[in-house]
Structures are given as structure tokens and as C-alpha cells.
Amino acid sequence: MKPPPFEYKRAETLDDAIATLAEAGDEAKLLAGGQSLIAMMNLRLVRPTMLIDLNRIGDLDYIRRNNGTVEIGAMTRQTTLENSAEIRTALPLMTAALPHVAHKPIRNRGTIGGSLAHNDPTAELPAVAIACGATMITRSASGERSIAAADFFTGYLETALADDEILTAIHIPASAPGTGYSFMEISPRKGDYALVGVAALLTVKDGNCADVRIVCMGAGDRAMRMESAENSLNGQAPSNDAFRAAAEAAAKSADPSADFHASADYRRDLIRNLTQRALAEASSRCQ
Predict the structure, then answer these.
(1) pLDDT of residue 62
(2) Cβ distance 179 to 201 under 8 Å?
């Protein structure tokens, strides 16, 4: 199928894009990588009257360090992030997650901002953003906003972005030295949408787990931080029993859906197993 008719506008600058979006109203859509949007338009799931193309805005494509924060432009390609030595050093969880994102041609075009703004509940980058405590920077004609990742993802394919706002950057604290990390997911085939996935971060202080962060994909209508699982592990010595208890808490907190790929019970069992494995791997990487 092909999309319904729409008007196409190519923005040359961020200010140009903001002004065009403000004028077009809520019937317009922003074109970043287009890897999800174009498919949805072809299936008539969305019917924008205008596409505003952001691909000429070079100011939104960057990776830079600012003291202890990694600042990433929203139009930075996923392949660029995957191959970045800066990301590998400062945000190893993101580096671990990116190879799971679809296939190489998709990552070559897909952008970090596009993935976060789309907010698929089984997407990898929203889970990483939540686990790492990212902050979303948005711009509109009214000015700039900073939105914590925990508040940005609001529901199935929904975010806190207003109709006239553009996600311009993502600011993520660099991982502290000694932080262990792990990213795991299960999909029907490599590159397919994940059934479920788990992003885990933790440190070990004085022999006990601390600063534990567990975020599950496919556990609800968006990536979910499993606070009960985190609380059960914080202050505990790293062990298989402690990881198993945290994994059980994560499975109980999850509210996965059922479809022709997997039942809700099967997804919950995958969450249980992946969480235990991810915590063990993260613990082994605490140096």
C-alpha cells in the first residue's frame, strides 16, 4: 500500500522546522529516519497532512561530552552511536543494546531521536534511556524543555512531546566507573521486534549490590523500570539466589500482552529468566 497524499516540507534549520511545525499544527509529522513512520503511513495507520523533513539539519547530529554528561543530537544515526568509541566508553549499555535494533540498513537510517519519539514498547533505546537516567531536550516556538526519561514515555507509542515540540537532544550521565551492565532480549528471529528484553545496571559497594536499575521491554505498554526488583537486590550480596529473587519480582511486576508470537505467561517467564541472566552478567562486569 501507499500513503494518502501529504505535503512535504524540507527544513534547512531547526528554527525553520519549529516554525513550520507551529504553523502546520497537529496534523503534521516529523521525518527523522522514517523507519517506523513511513511503514505506518503505507499501512494507513497514520495519515499526516504534512511531513517536515529534519534530515538537512546538521546541528542535530552530534555526540559530545560535557563534564560528566554525554550529549547526543536527536538526528544522530543509530549506526553512528553503535560505532562510537565515546559511547562505548561512557555508555556501554547503549553499545550493548544497539546491535539488537532491527538490521544494519535500518540502523544506518534510523536515528536515536526518532526511536525515542516513536516509543515502541519493545524498542531498545527507550529502555536504555530510562535505565541510564537520560533527559530529553525539546524545542518549540515557546522555548526549550527538559524532560526526564521516566516522564517522557507515557504509553503505547505515546510520549510527553507536545504537538508543536521537536526532540532535539538527549543528555545522558556517563556510567560511573565500576558500573556493570547487561542488555538481553529474545526475538522470533534476529532483527525482529523483541518479545521481551532487559536492560540492567548495577554497582557493587562494600560487597553488596547498589544503584540497581532494571528496565524491561515488552512488559507493558512501554519500557518499564522494575522498582520492586531493584529494591529486592539493593543492599544484597550478589548471588544467584539474590538475582533469582529480583527476577521473580520483575516477573510479578510485568504486565505483558499476548499475541500470535507468544502468550502473556510465556513473556513473563522470559522476563524472569532474562532478568536473572542480565543481573548475573552485569555483576560480573563490575570492575
Answers:
(1) 98
(2) yes
